[in-house]
Specification:
Length: about 250
């Protein structure tokens, strides 16, 4: 199928006695905004890292837009996916333009066309006035926005974001969410993780709630709420399935 398909994925990190992923399976069709949700330690970042080919699963199958995630397809998948990691993946001593030029070059983009694209996105993300400022002088919200631009310069069909709105102010968050909706409306698929369930409820057409390395439930947020009469919102559904116990 097109989209993302994860089947029976297992992963135990070296030196760890407990598996992080214990037979995780889910599918997201192409063209949607999807959410991968779960408590701390559920395995969301691990899953995303395996989807992107940054970490290897021990067993199971991952298929991205019809391509199995394996060595032979790594380069093709790299061009399909844009990844926005949880940690800011920019060089702090370089300016936004210098950073983005570097990332653009990695994908084979060069010259005037790349510079125009960079300036276009810096404007969309409200960073044009700070284009030549070093990243370490940026606020947290500005860094998050620049981090997203680095992942979209090659126009990925699938954008994967790990907590893109964590710790940003209301203004930056609104801007980022609007961008994701616009990017999706142009045909791209989006998969994102968040602990902000109100946000996920309004943004996502489809969510997977995972816990302890397994898929617990999947569905459209509004339908999941409807199906559980005691639940008023996605947070209630989340608590219904994952419980109140604190996680390490
Ligand atoms: N590189 C690693 N080496 C060993 N254990 C790891 C590594 N990365 C993650 N883990 C462990 O795997 C489990 C799942 O971590 P992961 O970061 O995938 O969860 P998460 O759902 O993204 O959590 P959070 O919401 O806190 O970001 C945790 O117990 C974590 O300690």
């Amino acid at each position: 199928m097109s989209g993302i398909s994860v089947t029976e994925l297992f992963k135990t990190y070296k030196g760890s006695d407990e598996p992080t992923l214990k037979g995780l399976s889910f599918q997201f069709p192409e063209g949607k905004i999807a959410g991968l949700l779960g408590p701390n330690g559920a395995g969301k970042t691990t899953t995303i890292s395996i989807l992107c080919g940054l970490v290897r699963g021990d067993s199971g199958e991952v298929v991205i837009h019809g391509l199995k995630q394996e060595a032979a397809h790594r380069e093709a998948i790299k061009h399909i996916i844009g990844i926005v990691p949880q940690q800011i993946a920019l060089y702090p001593q370089l300016s936004a333009v210098e950073n983005l030029t570097y990332f653009g070059n990695l994908y084979g983009f060069k010259g005037k066309a790349l510079q125009q694209k960079i300036m276009h996105y810096l404007e969309i993300f409200g960073l044009e006035k700070s284009a030549h400022k070093e990243i370490h002088k940026y606020s947290g919200g500005m860094k998050r926005r620049a981090n997203i631009i680095a992942a979209i310069l090659h126009d990925p069909q699938l954008l994967i974001l790990d907590e893109p709105t964590a710790g940003v102010d209301v203004q930056s968050r609104g801007m980022i969410l609007q961008f994701l909706r616009d990017y999706n409306s142009r045909g791209a698929s989006i998969l994102y993780t968040s602990h902000l369930l109100e946000e996920a409820q309004s943004l996502c057409e489809d969510v997977v709630i995972m816990d302890e390395g397994k898929m617990i439930v999947q569905g459209n947020p509004l339908k999941l709420i409807e199906q559980h009469p005691a639940c008023q919102n996605l947070e209630d559904v989340f608590l219904h399935f994952t419980g109140y116990a604190l996680r390490d």
